[in-house]
Amino acid sequence: MATAMKLHWSPKSPYVRKVMICAHELGLLPRLELVRSVAAMRTPNPALMADNPLSKIPTLVREDGSVLFDSVVICEYLNALAGGSLFPPQGEARWQALRWHALGDGLLDALILWRNEREREVPLQALLDAFELKTRAALQMLDHEAAVLREAPFSIGPLTLGCTLGYLDYRFDALGWRGSAPALAGWFETLRARPSFAATEPAEG
Questions:
Q1: Whether residue 58 has a cis bond before it, omega within 30° of 0
Q2: Mean pLDDT in the chain?
């Protein structure tokens, strides 16, 4: 049996969730050793830094000891390892998948900065307003694309958008995003029914 790959992991991270969904979809879960790793912005984790000097998750240590950083790099590696189809190889399908991935990841970045700002002792209202404006604009764009998402093959694009919307539910429930993006919400419910999404719902712990 091959030596397991080590994945620095958290049940709350939407970036880790992307990797875990890929592993579920590609049948690679048995080859992953999950290592619970805390990656708080203000307190670098020495154990995690031994593999990733940026102290960020997900971080994947491959069987040969080499290390891959960043969720999209790890997802693409797992897809190549399994000979999967989560990254379309060429044509418009590839650009659409990568575009949705970039939008989902960019929105995730903004949401995490928004959450950090609102937890400061004295948040800067201008930043809070800017994050909310960008979030609502992204949701509106995706709501207009919901019919296209319904017809698109499952790939890294819809996968990432699903993780982003799941993070909205987890950390920004008061935003009530479904009311402003009903078509997108309908698509998201079909995505949530996939076993890989149901098995990776964010949780405390």
A1: yes
A2: 95
131/109 Cα distance (integer angstroms): 10
Strands 5-9 and 59-61: antiparallel
Phi, psi (deg, nearest 5) at residue 71: -60, -40
| Side-chain-facing half-sphere of 50: CA atoms under 13 Å | 6
Quote the distance between the C-alpha of residue 140 and its chain's center.
Answer: 20
List CB contacts of 138: < 8 A, sequence separation 6 or more.
103, 106, 107
Total residues belonging to the chain: 205
Please state, in angstroms and rounded to a whole number, the distance separating the CA atoms of residues 101 and 91: 16
Q: Are 203 and 11 in contact (CB under 8 A)?
A: yes
Q: What is the largest CA-CA distance in the chain?
A: 55
pLDDT, tens only, 55-113: 999 999 999 999 999 999 999 999 999 999 999 999 999 999 999 999 999 999 999 99
Judged against a pLDDT cut of 90, whether residue 36 lies above it is answered with: yes
> What is the rounded end-to-end Cα distance, in angstroms, of the chain?
30
- Give the CA angle between residues 22, 28, 29 to the nearest 5°: 90
